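Reviewer 2 asked us to include a model.

Predict the structure of this chain.
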Amino acid sequence: MSDTKEILNMILHDEKLLNSRALRDRIYTDEPILRPASQLRRPAAPERIKEMKGLAFTPEAYWKTSAWLFYTQGKFMEDYEDSFSYDTDFVKYYPSYRELSTEQLRGYFSWRTDVRRGNIKKAPSPFVFIYLYELVNCIGSDDPNECFSRMKSFCDSYRAIDDSIVKYTDVWLADMIVYYGLDAALADELNDIKYDKMLLTLINWESYSNDELFEAIDFLSAYQLKKSLYYSAAPEELKTVLVRSFVSLSRFFRDKRKNSLIDKLFGNMVECSCNMFASAVFYDRQPMRSCEYSLNDIHSFTCTNGKWKCRKYFGNRGRNGRLGDLVRAVDSLMRDKADFKHKISFTGVSKSAVKLIQSEIDSFYEEKRRKEAAKIEIDLSKLAGIRRSADIIREKLIVDEEEISELRQSEENVCEDEKSCESCCELPLDNDEICFMKALLYNGNIADIAKSCGKMVSILADSVNEKLFDRFGDTVIEFTGDLPALIEDYTEELMEMIPDNKE
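Predicted model (structure tokens):
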């Protein structure tokens, strides 16, 4: 016996109640104390809902489709509003008005009233899908653009509450654009069309920047490079080599192979039959139409006598595994080249592709080495000292007659040295630079040499470094403070090239 029955039994057999004067003086008939919910009086259904339900029993409804009935009932109720509290969750697949009870219908129309006023709350899934079915059928407005805008706005808000609708709504939004002939630009923010845009970037790789190519590769690759440890350590290097490798492979397939690199990675475009608004309750009001529509260069539709076909890159319209193999290979080979602590392996990439990637890696590091070798750093903290030196030099240039005589004598001595410098003509240096190098190599007077040439010491040093870079692959003169000095590793070789020639 349940607890409820025990309590009722105790009340009915209570001696105080049975012996009371009121009970003795009155006569009672048998009457059920508790009634099931089905016997309780329900609130009367609104007249509009009664009329809507009656549409399902008209003679026309017997031979029409369920999609027609949904559209007809929806248009009948498109401006209806209600205020009814309903908080019971339930599940129905392919829900329609006909399948809902009066309370559920009133709950739905009350929720829809709030949605149209901008108050979007979580609801039973049948409510959400019925509302979406209304919009794809243009129930609520005869303007497809307005229905598209309402649906896009609702989806953007409701996906934060329940993102399970996204796998349906992105497809239905694209179908709305095609079916109703809306502006193709409306599809740009849909994930499926973003896929096309990124793929078009890779197809037309010659027309896009390195940054745009990297964005497309990262969007489409199954191997997510930005989660790589090596990418965190050297993002710009990895991005540069990845894009160069992709371009190099694309050029190789264009010139040496029948099919393009994109065909190898993503397959070919295919035309297949399709259904507009698949998985939705949709009433096609133009069942025998014929038309063509293009969302972009690689995604188009044709309809012939109501039969729709779609032409695009089918298969997995998400991250691509073959492209992911290529990206992982670049990451792995870059780690090996940089001797990165954490190594990874790769598969699915041909030997010729690996060879091209390694070539791009070697080329990148050679360019980097040359740039670093030629890099001239300016220490701004030494500018004050440079200005003081310039003032001293300026004062020394203002000389009297005795100093001029001494300077001429010094110049005669320097000229004798210049004659001996002509024996070094095989070097790409002029006489001033050779004499300057001799002064460095054999402890000559650097200041006098620079003064006789009419050039600053730093100018002569920079000129020599630039002209000898191709031979040594490095600078040969560096500055210690304000004084130039030869790099010790190159001194012996420079002495062989520039002998002293003094007896």
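Residues 204-267+318-374 form one domain. The mean pLDDT is 85. We have added this to the supplementary material.
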